[in-house]
Amino acid sequence: MAAQVTLPETLHIFNTEYSADSAEFCSSPSHRNVLAIGTYQLATADGVDPNDVTSDIPKKRLGRLLLFHCDENKLQETQRQDMAAILDMKWNPNSSDRLPELALVNADGKLQLFQLDNKVINELFSSLIGDDRLGLSLDWSNAKYHNSEPHIVTSDSKGMITTFQVTSDRSLTQVNQWEAHGFEAWIAAFDYWQPSIIYTGGDDCRLKGWDVRTSCEMPTFVSKSHSMGVCSIHSNIHKENIIATGSYDETILLWDTRKMRSPLSETNVGGGVWRLKWHPTNGELLLAACMHNGFHILNCSSIDGSAQPIIASYKKHESLAYGVDWYRVAEISLPNQDSSLHHREADSTSKETPKNEHVDEKSTSEIDLKENMADKAFWEGSNEMIASCSFYDHALHVWKVNL
Fold first, then answer.
1. Residues 6 or more apart in contact with residue 29 via CB below 8 angstroms
2. For the ranges 57-61, 110-114, 184-188, 347-351, which has the lowest average pLDDT?
3. Mean pLDDT over residues 307-333, rounded?
4. Which of 57, 336, 377, 385 has its CA 20 to 30 A from that of 71?
């Protein structure tokens, strides 16, 4: 029996001017209404159409970082900053002991680290991934376990994977770099339960695993389950051993990381899967940006070999569906003191965890409790707010869906 598909409600639409390809809500509870949008625009010096593939004139990749205050009633731009074209970006998922941090990779082959201070974002540090390449994706290692000096992994257009450590003074130190794929390495992602494990996907149609405690000369596994380029991977922070992968072959595969010979389930979503996002608090919901076929939410409560039901779809964009993210509803309950939160991130150098690393146990009384209560009251039940962006029509949409 086919699942009933819920129709979302559009809350806001914004013209980003440049082509939009990345959307990220801030993961810090006190800044959860901050939305970052990354853009990518081809341009030429003399006004030649940048989409003219017959032109030999070099094209410049322009970018712009846009910041918004976003809630159900208002979408207000608060800052814009021109820079090289942005291919991917992510907020530090566990920066509760410091100001929010945003990392991005760009068309100049750089990894940049920014900090949000008093609603203004400023660059802290920049590191070159490599010459003559585009940075294509990045991920933070500390989504599950707090680490004050986390690692960031990047992938690039030359098929290389690079790991960096964010030091205590917020500089970036390159740890390792290796060739993972014969063509573009579209995506790299940490296993959040085992941050020493990295998964990568490339235009060579391969999904690979790597253990950064080794030299990474050989992958831990190679999968050919996808028939086209692998461009999205996300580890589930709520369900150990579960990851999702997406490909240009228009399928989403769910995996048990202990058995990577074959996937647990395969779901065709009718478009290349550029981004996948597990829900920040519900490990049974998976959000997918499906290029030519809009955005979909999959119910992954039961993984039994059959396709995952699509329970909501948003198809009001007029171009390629690229960036997408969940809004994080305020938590107003007391912090959970579960000892499992004190599990430390695996360290590739096997060094003792620095003394200044700790799990944040900051009381929500330090946040505006009234705002949190109003926020939670509005979203009480099964409402979700989602930001999505599309490429050629340079559009940002914010929408609500009742699941």
1. 96, 328, 330, 331, 364, 367
2. 347-351
3. 90
4. 336
| Structure confidence at residue 96 (pLDDT) | 75
Cα dihedral sign, 100-96-21-134: positive
Distance CA 26, CA 224 (A): 34
What DSSP state is assigned to residue 366?
G
Name the burial class of residue 294, with classes exposed (0-12), middle (13-18) and buried (19+) by CB atoms within 10 angstroms of its CB.
buried
Instruction: Return d(Cα 400, Cα 72) in angstroms, integer.
Output: 8
Nearest to 296 by CA among 212, 401, 179: 401
Rounded CA-CA distance 326/283 in Å is: 13
* Interstrand relation of 321-326 and 310-314 (parallel, antiparallel or unpaired): unpaired
Whole-number pLDDT of residue 329? 85
Angle at 227 between CA 223 and CA 230, to 5 degrees: 65
Whether 213 and 203 have beta carbons less than 8 Å apart is answered as: no
Asked whether the beta carbons of 190 and 153 are under 8 A apart, the reply is yes
Q: What is the pTM of this model?
A: 0.86
Structure tokens at 167: 């030091």
How many C-alpha atoms does 126 have within 13 Å on its Cβ side?
A: 12
Give the count of beta carbons closer than 10 Å to the beta carbon of residue 145.
22
Per-residue pLDDT band for 346 (boundaries 50, 70, 90) equals very low
228: closest CA among 277, 183, 264, 197?
183
pLDDT attached to residue 403:
84
| The pLDDT of residue 45 | 59
